């Protein structure tokens, strides 16, 4: 599998940004960020922060390419967890019906359709606290089929045991998504049915099994800027940066406790993306949930701040996402292109 970092030398840098040397890159990858330093990034004048983020971004990525990912809910609703943002928790009346795990063929069909419209990454989500071993039997079956399409794969199935992580890795799953969601301090306000430590333990198992880590969070949940800083500090100070960092803007769903929360200033969302880009220079920073309610101009600022992946298709897991045609128009207006699919394994 081609590593993102392997592409950095091949990317043309603008005249004002000298190409990064190996030394620069080594210096940049830090795991000892303190919160004051991160808060200072947020406090920079907006243009200064975006400029710095864009400089870092260009050292590692083509600034005009954005990865198109498709998300599919393979098991919807009825979840025993109480995540205050989530329409799939069985605790809240949100109108989301609980379903069973989607049959393998239906999942593969969805992946084929996604591939046909240009997605290079296929992400599957299940509303489980944790999968049963039988569930792992079922999901590994779909992996071979999706990989045969040449797509990158990601799954998010809840907490994993070491053995389950090992089985997913062996089946060729590229990334496992497991979000820390917010700062350690605010976490208890959002979820009471599992701890921050539980999340970190699963992330360690994913890493230990040799899969790439997809880990990020949600903003706009009534947290403070200090919480956004704390979330990013946790991510950036993991022993290895998550290769993929989804930043979600809360999709407010009626019936969930966070419905009606104060809306976050979208420029603060852009700042969060920019700070993530600076802290984790080689990671794919994903502009994930929340685009449905964002203007084209706000999304353009997210790309300028270093976001280089979006979900395409008119649904996320259970909530809405912009129409494909709208996204195509936006890409044309911004001169953006879809990132190539990952190179095949050697
Ligand atoms: N049940 C598994 C878990 O929680 O790890 C996997 C599925 S869960 C829906 C995946 C992620 O979606 C959550 O960690 C959360 O970050 C994000 N998410 C869920 N509801 C959301 C919402 N309303 N707005 C934004 N992001 C949301
Ligand atoms: C992530 O960080 N965001 C995606 C993906 N990982 C699984 C999920 C967004 C879900 C938004 C709410 C919904 O559609 O139910
Ligand atoms: Fe369940 Fe995941 Fe939703 Fe939490 S975020 S309620 S664990 S589906």
Write a structural description.
The protein is globular. The protein has helices at 22-28, 35-43, 46-60, 104-116, 133-148, 162-170, 184-190, 196-208, 225-236, 266-279, 296-304, 324-334, and strands at residues 65-75, 121-126, 152-156, 175-177, 212-214, 217-219, 244-249, 284-287, 307-311, 337-338. Strands 1, 2, 3, 4, 5, 6, 7, 8, 9 and 10 form a ten-stranded parallel β-sheet that branches. With 346 residues, the protein is an alpha/beta fold. 39% of the residues lie in helices and 14% in strands. Strand 3 (152-156), helix 6 and strand 4 (175-177) form a beta-alpha-beta unit. The longest helix is centred in the middle third of the chain and has 16 residues, at 133-148. It contains twelve helices and ten strands. The model is unreliable at 1-23 (pLDDT under 50). The chain has one domain (32-341): Alpha-Beta Barrel (TIM Barrel), CATH 3.20.20. Iron/sulfur cluster binds at residues 79, 81, 83, 86, 88-89, 127, 129, 158.
Ligands: S-adenosylmethionine, 6-(5-methyl-2-OXO-imidazolidin-4-yl)-hexanoic acid, iron/sulfur cluster
DSSP strand content: 5-15%
**Globular, elongated, flat, extended or rod-shaped: what is the shape?**
globular
CATH topology: TIM Barrel
Oligomer: single chain
| Count of helical stretches | 12
Class derived from helix and strand content = alpha/beta
Helix share bin: 25-40%
Largest sheet: 10 strands, parallel
* CATH architecture field: Alpha-Beta Barrel
Parts with pLDDT < 50 across at least 5 consecutive residues: 1-23
Helix-strand string: HHHEHEHEHEHHEEHEHEHEHE
Query: What is the mean predicted local confidence, pLDDT?
Result: 92
Number of strands: 10
Query: What is the alpha-carbon Rg in Å?
Result: 19 Å
**CATH domain class name:** Alpha Beta
